[in-house]
Design goal:
about 500 residues; alpha/beta; 8-stranded parallel beta barrel
């Protein structure tokens, strides 16, 4: 058995999960050359909510971030999270957008694209797979892991086989809620390695329930090749397991040693410990183990979304009822995995059902679109009664949703006009029209630091004062302020949704 590889997530999913995706590029750059010397399998540094947050809150060009990172990672492959037909946004984009986006990502420095679909509908992976392949990037097909009466090892194996047929260069088991048990981890890995013995298999787990370290250990013993970890200051809770801990543990297993230097990792951990302190305002406040996720399956970040929505209505005490309703709505809608955007759709509908006191008396546009098939096909067909309640007499579609989308690139170029310096700017505008245009105008007008940078500086100056205060006291920013970038504007009709994954 060959040694286990580590993908480092500190500068993408680590701070997205714990610090609302607010880490600035300037805080990444000083560590990158040292990270490049570690010997990681890859470094996740882009995609997910980072693109949105750069534009919306940090006033940074996400393309420039990628270029700056790639300049300094000369030995280690870069990796990103691509939301299938959604690219890095919250809706389906036309195929020409996917093709252009993936080409520009590769040209700017991206190597490996982890591609998933929120409903595990492989039809929604066709265009992004083709786009990545044409651009010269590596495709990692991701299985969004979830549990339900209709999710089985056989079903995941069939999905993996289809992704291999479509051209995947590697596979990933993506456990976004931290609910992959050790036994299921071994069973899934065993089956996938049996079916595809030469295919690299990567594991992505969140530490929410406390399962992930056990799941990783079972996975690598069953043949998994790479595990996702975060340096300890940005690990645990709703993030990934700690890099140093897994490196130390696997060193005791013949054939599983990662080969990474704990002293060098410790040096990086010291750096990111100081960086994290700068972002105290955005701490999500959900630390440690939340075993309740094993029942309700709501990812830790989504809990903060629900709390925020309920708090705005003065109904925070109804969270237990919302979590119960969340499970019922998920079942009604065909058991979608709870990952962006399906987690937001299901969660917001559950809040509405509880607050109105009548199920589906008020239905969001996104719930209606999900029922209509506009996001793709659910694992279990939605029942006729539920469809009737939500859609009335309107029939759902049965084809790939993006088949109905006309090309978008040329129209976007015309709309944004001279604000765009190049095609990268056009793509930024297309992904997030409001924040994208605001950023391009801000750049054109030469404006100074935005409010969040000022807040970060003030926070750094007062960190000594904060250390003297209890973690649960007034120094902790409210969950509403700890929101992840992107949800507030892109999902306005959802209320103030927060943690994007």
């Amino acid at each position: 058995m060959t040694k286990v590889g580590i993908m480092e997530t500190a500068i993408r999913d680590g701070h997205q999960s714990l610090l609302a995706t607010r880490m600035r590029t300037d805080d990444m750059i000083p560590a990158l050359e040292r990270m490049d010397e570690i010997g990681y399998h890859s470094i996740e540094c882009w995609g997910g909510a980072t693109f949105d947050t750069c534009l919306r809150f940090l006033r940074e060009d996400p393309w420039e971030r990628l270029r700056e990172i790639k300049k300094r990672l000369k030995k280690t492959p870069t990796q990103m999270l691509l939301r299938g037909q959604n690219a890095v946004g919250y809706r389906h984009y036309a195929d020409d957008v996917l093709s252009t986006f993936c080409d520009r990502a590769v040209q700017n420095g991206m190597d490996i694209f982890r591609v998933f679909d929120a409903l595990n509908d492989v039809r929604n992976l066709e265009a992004p797979f083709a786009a990545v392949k044409k651009a010269g990037g590596k495709i990692q097909g991701a299985l969004c892991y979830t549990t339900s009466p209709v999710h089985t090892v056989e079903g995941f194996a069939e999905m993996a086989a289809r992704m291999v047929e479509m051209g995947a260069d590697s596979l990933c088991i993506k456990d976004m809620a931290g609910i992959l048990s050790p036994g299921m981890s071994r069973a899934l890995v065993t089956r996938l390695k049996q079916d595809h013995p030469e295919m690299l298999l990567q594991m992505h787990c969140h530490d929410t329930s406390g399962y992930s370290e056990m799941a990783y250990l079972e996975a690598v013993q069953a043949g998994a090749n790479v595990i996702d970890c975060a340096l300890s200051p940005l690990a645990g809770g709703t993030s990934q397991p700690a890099t140093e801990t897994l490196v130390a543990a696997l060193a005791e297993y013949p054939g599983l040693d990662t080969g990474l230097d704990l002293l060098k990792l410790g040096d990086l951990a010291v750096y990111f410990k100081e960086v994290r302190r700068k972002y105290w305002k955005f701490e999500i406040g959900l630390l440690g183990i939340d075993a309740g996720v094993l029942q309700h399956q709501v990812p830790g970040g989504m809990i903060s979304n629900l709390v925020g929505q309920l708090r705005e209505q003065g109904a925070e005490a109804k969270l237990p009822l919302v979590l119960e309703e969340n499970a019922r709505v998920r079942a009604d809608l065909g058991y979608p995995p709870l990952v962006t955007p399906s987690s937001q759709i299901v969660g917001t509908q559950a809040v509405l059902n509880v607050l109105t006191g009548k199920r589906y008396a008020s239905v969001t546009r996104e719930t209606k679109n999900l029922a209509k098939g506009m996001y793709g096909k659910t694992t279990q067909p939605i029942s006729h009664d539920v469809l009737k309640t939500i859609l009335g007499d309107e029939p759902p579609i049965t084809h790939r949703p993006a088949d109905d989308l006309p090309p978008e690139m040329e129209a976007a170029k015309a709309e944004i006009g001279e604000l765009a310096n190049d095609v990268d700017d056009v793509l930024s505008y297309l992904m997030f029209p409001g924040p994208g245009k605001e950023f391009l105008e801000w750049r054109r007008d030469g404006l100074g630091p935005e409010r969040e940078l000022v807040a970060a500086v003030v926070g750094a100056m007062t960190i000594g004062e904060r250390r003297a205060q209890p973690a649960s006291g007034p120094a902790m920013a409210p969950i509403a302020a700890a929101s992840a970038g992107g949800a507030d504007g892109a999902w306005r009709n959802f209320g103030r949704l927060r943690q994007m994954r």
